[in-house]
Structures are given as C-alpha cells and as structure tokens.
Amino acid sequence: MARPSSRRPGHNRKAQYSLFASYVVAMTGAAAGLLLIGVAIFDPTGFAAIRTATAEISRPASLGLRNMVSGVSSIDEILTAYWRAGSQNVALRHQVEADRNRIIEAKAIAQENLRLKRLLKLVDEDQSDLLTARLISSSSSSPRRFARLNAGRWQGVRTGMPVRASEGLVGRIHSVTPNTADVLLLTDSSNIVPVRRATDSVPAISTGLGDGTVEIRSLAAGRNPFNPGDILVTSGVGGVYQPNIPVAVVVRIEGEIAYGVPLANPSKVDAVVVERSFEEAVTRGEPAPAEGVVPEVANNATAP
C-alpha cells in the first residue's frame, strides 16, 4: 500500500505546536480587539491615553518606514532624470540666462524698498513660523485624511496651527501628543478653508472630498466664476491661515461647483513648517501680507 503524500497534523508534534500557537495568537488578537472596543465605548479617557502611548511607541517605526518608502519611491525619478539630463541641462542654461536680468532687477527693487522702509522707520518681523518638522506617515485607506508629524506638545505644537510646505498649504494640527501630532489634511471632508482666486480675489470655500481632491464653492451668487487652471490661495478670513498661501489648482468645473487638487501633495512632501495662526501672528505684531501679493506658484500645476 502506497504511503500517503501528506500527513495530518495529529501525526506530527511540531505541526501540532504550530497549529496550537496560531490558535493562541488568533484568540489573543480577538480578545485584545474586543478589549479596546470596550475601553473606547465605556472609558474614552482611558482609550485616549492608550492611543497617545501607541503613537509615541510607533513613532520610531513610522519614521524608519517613511525614510524607506521615500528612498524606494525616488528611484524611478532618479532614472528618468538621468536619461533626460542632456536636454534638461540645455533648457536650464537658457532659463538661467533669461532669469539673470530678472534677478538683477529684483535686487535693485529690494534695495530700493529697504531704503524706503528705513526712511519710514518700518521694521518687518516675521513671527508666524514656529518650527520645521517632518511628516512620517499618512492615512491611505481610512475615510479620514490625516498625516503624522514628527513634533508635538513638547516642541510647542498646538491644536489648530496651520501646516504648510514649500508648494502650499498641507492642513492644520488636529491633535497632539508629547512628540507627535496628527495633521488634518486639506482633502479631509471636515477641513474647510476660506480661499480666493489669486488673480482677482474672488472669494470661495474649499472643502475636502476625502479622495485626494477638494470642492470649491464661490461665495458670490450666480454663474461659477472659476476656470480650469485657476490658482487658489488662502484669504486670511477666520484668523487661522495666513493670507496668500497657495492652496489648490482648479482642474474641472461641474455646474456651480469647481473641483481642484492641492498644490502640496502629502505623499511627496518631506519637511513642513508649522505656523502660528494668523490671529496669533498679528497679535504678536507681525504685519499682514499685502492683499494681492501671492507667492510664486508653478505655472504647470496640473491634476495628478
């Protein structure tokens, strides 16, 4: 009689131990999950403490995974840049030559402004920036859109503070722990930002849709005034966000609603700046940015 090709776990002590261990792990995980659900329902304060401890413990692992993912995701960009280096160098030379005269003119204007400010005894003190930190993780499958910041209460971060990158606004601080903070991203459905069109200051409201885009509704009654390609910046209304921070670019129009994508993509942003709220900065004596003065935004901003 031929020997069976496979043996049941009952005939192998090692297989029995493995099966028993898997049962123990599964039951332990189920019990821990039920316990956390019970704590969240009957003791929210205790659950908040558990959540804070978990955030602190997972901070080093999240930071390491973020660095690894950033390194892997940049490989294709490095290869593409290598193959296009020749044509890009030629284009950059022409661009440098074209920009040289503009730089000279800008320096002359800056010197003239400095001279005039000295005559008027005006001093600019930028007190809006609090600190620079790194985004170490972000939600991808959750219906809420959060990112985790590698700085917290001990570094001076407080709930409600705006978070921005060099490309534009990222979101605002939602909750803080001693060394980490959760950032409510622009694309979250509960994040509402007063904005205006950069070219003519048409006011609007930006609301996240939870899918990587934002919904833009004009505050003016009548026909939708927006067009694809319009750049939206913060208006400063509400006292939270500094005026003239780039927010999003309009990509399509549907009736009275415009849809856009944020100019700052959290998945590609590494370092961000945590700012004091606009109201707090003004209270500290910082002069408000002039209306209509908008930071330079890339002209080729398009939907991903």
Task: Describe the SSE topology.
Elements (H helix, E strand, L loop, with lengths): L12 H30 L1 H30 L1 H9 L1 H36 L8 E10 L7 E4 L12 E3 L4 E8 L4 E5 L6 E6 L5 E6 L5 E5 L12 E4 L11 E9 L2 E6 L8 E5 L2 H6 L21
Antiparallel strand pairs: 1-2, 1-12, 2-5, 3-4, 3-12, 4-5, 6-7, 6-9, 7-8, 8-11, 9-10, 10-11
What is the gist of this entry?
By secondary structure, the chain is of the alpha+beta class. It has helices at residues 13-42, 44-73, 75-83, 85-120, 278-283, and strands at 129-138, 146-149, 162-164, 169-176, 181-185, 192-197, 203-208, 214-218, 231-234, 246-254, 257-262, 271-275.
Written overview of the protein:
The chain is an alpha+beta fold and 304 residues long. The chain folds into three domains: 13-68; 76-120; 130-283, Rod shape-determining protein MreC, domain 1 (Thrombin, subunit H). The protein contains five helices and twelve strands. The strands form two sheets. It has a six-stranded antiparallel barrel with strand order 1-2-5-4-3-12. It has a six-stranded antiparallel beta barrel with strand order 6-7-8-11-10-9. Helix 1 crosses helix 2. The termini are far apart. Residues 286-304 have low confidence and may be disordered.
Which regions contain 5 or more consecutive residues with pLDDT less than 50? 286-304
Structural domain count:
3
CATH topology value of the largest domain: Thrombin, subunit H
Number of helices: 5
CATH superfamily of the largest domain: Rod shape-determining protein MreC, domain 1
Order of helices and strands: HHHHEEEEEEEEEEEEH
Report the structural category: alpha+beta
CATH-derived architecture of the largest domain: Beta Barrel
Fraction of helical residues: 25-40%
Distance between the termini: 65 Å
Classified by CATH, the class of the largest domain is Mainly Beta
Strand residue percentage: 15-25%
Record the strand order, biggest sheet: 1-2-5-4-3-12
